[in-house]
């Protein structure tokens, strides 16, 4: 059974940094594209960043561009999101996602709160 578990969220002051992690199990994740999404209270889920199955290509959303780095380990079952210069508007639950063909899997999310 595929399982994604995020960690690394917390409370940080504006301008600070956090590194989120996602550990994947139950599949061969080197074959999956993976990404991060976030959802603020009362808002729609928003794309943050994505990385190809090889790690050779990365993409980021406009709202975080230049402030985040997405990466994955060579085995493919660890996904990371380094976030710098955090802003109060980055406050949200951050979700890890894995995609293979027509299948997608989500983690339960980790809360990031940025105080001003």
Structural write-up:
The chain is mainly β and 116 residues long. Helices cover 0% and strands 54% of the residues. It contains no helices and eleven strands. It has strands spanning 3-7, 10-13, 18-25, 33-39, 46-51, 58-60, 68-72, 78-83, 92-100, 103-106, 110-115. Strands 2, 4, 5, 6, 9, 10 and 11 form a seven-stranded mixed sheet that branches. Strands 1-3-8-7 form a four-stranded antiparallel sheet, with no helix packed on it. It is globular. The chain starts with a strand and ends with a strand.
Characteristics of this structure?
116 residues; mainly beta; four-stranded antiparallel sheet; globular
Helix-and-strand structural type:
mainly beta
Proportion of residues in β-strands:
over 45%
Oligomer: single chain
* Number of H- or I-type helical stretches: 0
Give the helix level as a range of percent.
under 10%
The total strand number stands at 11
Give the rounded overall mean pLDDT. Answer: 95
Q: Characterize the biggest β-sheet.
A: 7 strands, mixed
What is the element layout, followed by pairings?
Layout: E1 3-7, E2 10-13, E3 18-25, E4 33-39, E5 46-51, E6 58-60, E7 68-72, E8 78-83, E9 92-100, E10 103-106, E11 110-115
Parallel strand pairs: 2-11
Antiparallel strand pairs: 1-3, 3-8, 4-5, 4-9, 5-6, 7-8, 9-10, 9-11
Structure described in brief:
Helix content is 0%, strand content 54%. It has 116 residues and is an all-beta fold.
């Amino acid at each position: 059974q595929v399982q994604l578990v995020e960690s690394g969220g917390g409370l940080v002051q504006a301008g600070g940094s956090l590194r989120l992690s996602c550990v994947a199990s139950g599949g061969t994740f080197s074959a999956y594209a993976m990404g991060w999404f976030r959802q603020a209270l009362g808002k729609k889920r928003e794309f943050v960043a994505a990385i190809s199955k090889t790690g050779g290509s990365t993409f980021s959303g406009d709202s975080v561009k230049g402030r985040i780095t997405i990466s994955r380990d060579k085995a493919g079952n660890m996904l990371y999101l380094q976030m710098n210069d955090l802003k109060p508007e980055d406050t949200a639950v951050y979700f890890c996602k894995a995609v293979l063909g027509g299948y997608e899997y989500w983690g339960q999310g980790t809360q990031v709160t940025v105080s001003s």
